Amino acid sequence: MTLDDFNLYTHFRRQVDAHKNDELLCTGDGRSYTYGEIDQKSAAIASFLTSLGIEAGNRISVQVEKSPETLCLYLACLRAGFVFHPLNMAYTTGELEYFLNNAEPAAVICDPSGEIPIKEIADRAGAQWVFTLDGDGNGTLPNRASDATSDFGVVPRAADDVAALLYSSGTTGVPKGIMLTHANLLRNTEALVDAWGFTDQDRLLHALPIFHVHGLFVAIGCVMLSGASMRWLPAYNPQAVMRFLAECTVLMGVPTYYTRLLALSEFMAETAKNIRLFVSGSAPLLEETFIEFEARTGHRILERYGMTETNMNTSNPLDGERKPGTVGPPLPGVEVRIVDDAGDDLPVDQIGNLQVKGPNVFIGYWKMPDKTAEDFTEDGFFNTGDKGTVDADGYVSIVGRTKDMVITGGLNVYPKEVELFIDDLPGVKESAVIGVPHADFGEGLVAVVVPENVSEVSETDVINACKSELANFKVPKRAIFVDELPRNTMAKVQKNVLRETYQSTLKDSAQ
Fold first, then answer.
1. 511 occurs within a structural domain
2. Which domain holds residue 464?
């Protein structure tokens, strides 16, 4: 390894070599994999894909279930210099059409159940190869890679070489490809390992999905850069988490994970006695959840703040005060500032636009140089689109979002995309989609609909249509019909009025 090799796997490799015979992960059903075994499996996949003529910098689009083999595929892409492009399994073929056309992948890896329609989309997008991989680790990819050599090293990467391409829609509903570099991932993971005290004695209970930053880069990165291990669950299940908490030292989750644990009467301090750290992110943690969790277990949840474009920006401290309702001070190397609309710095505790700068911040949007320039200031700060404050101790609080985004169950939903779909439905004149408090998901979607005629469209019609075409997390939980939408003098829909009016719509909802 040279000092200028920023390939993230080069740095993981130090722990791989040091813990070759130690367990890296164990699945919920007891399948155990050592660091050495995962290293060899990922090397074979890298060898196979490289033998097809796929080159460093080419995109590999991946829509598969979480499995140890998916981890191997991710690591293979890192070490071979490919750009890993993960996709939520909930995306429909209609949504995939845009992603693949835009990303122009060399290969697409999908679940066998979707192979036929995805192959058609992949062919139109110019992808040369389509392989399958299911949740049990079977498929054409592992079959073909089983004959490949595991004698594959690591392709050196420069700091600004792209490691991953993740998509995040804008308020216009047009998805943006976020280019994260090897240096972005490496520097942020190094900061988190240090900030959260990760060592090879840790065991992470990994129940997060691995198609976004939290489960893919934060969780896996902290483990592999420290030599720790994981109990690897295919999805979050409160009973399964309860079963394995005693053997683990860290749990990372979205707020929903913690509310669901608190809903179990058997979840008590004794259950969590071996855990040294509970981390929450991807959505705001309600202060009452923080307080109830501490009262029940004696643990103060560590809340942090990040986004797809930046990985992690801030974190409450491992040692020190963890303030409920805040996401802590900036991580080392990260600058955070609060400015007004003119770009001038605001004083302590004053609400303004939150901007960040640091080695964690992405290099730009894929094929969107104008949008990239628009979202960065002249002095290199990224406009997060969040409204926030910084207190006298340097702790950041997120108080709202400039961009009209809803975070439900830790997943981002951009209302404009859902509104455009609903507006095209028969009998609908226009709609406004908002996020309102939800006991389980933090926020739930509600569609406020103006019909063409009162009896032409029903709530069931709207919701069922959304279910047929949109990912499940984008489907409104309620559709409410009104004569007209509230507007200001500029004719803009006043979503703040709608949120206030319907804030109790999903109260105590279990939907």
1. no
2. 407-501
Q: What is the pLDDT of residues 376-420, one digit of tens each?
A: 999 999 999 988 999 999 999 988 767 677 889 988 887 888 988
Per-residue pLDDT tens over the stretch 121-142: 999 999 999 999 999 999 999 9
Tokens (6 digits) for 131: 């392989």
CATH code, domain with 434 = 3.30.300.30
Shared domain for 459 and 312, answered yes or no, is no
Supply the pLDDT for residue 54.
Answer: 98
User: What is the rounded distance in angstroms from the CA atom of residue 154 to the CA atom of residue 147?
Assistant: 19
b (16+ CB within 10 A) / e for 210-238: bbbbbbbbbbbbbbbbbbbbbbbbbebeb
What CATH number is given to the structural domain containing 384? 3.40.50.12780
Lay out the sheet containing 162-169: strands in order across: 129-132, 107-110, 59-63, 83-86, 162-169, 175-181, 364-365
Amino acid 49: pLDDT: 98
CA nearest to 77, candidates 104, 109, 100, 102: 109
The total number of structural domains in the chain stands at 3
Prediction pTM value: 0.86
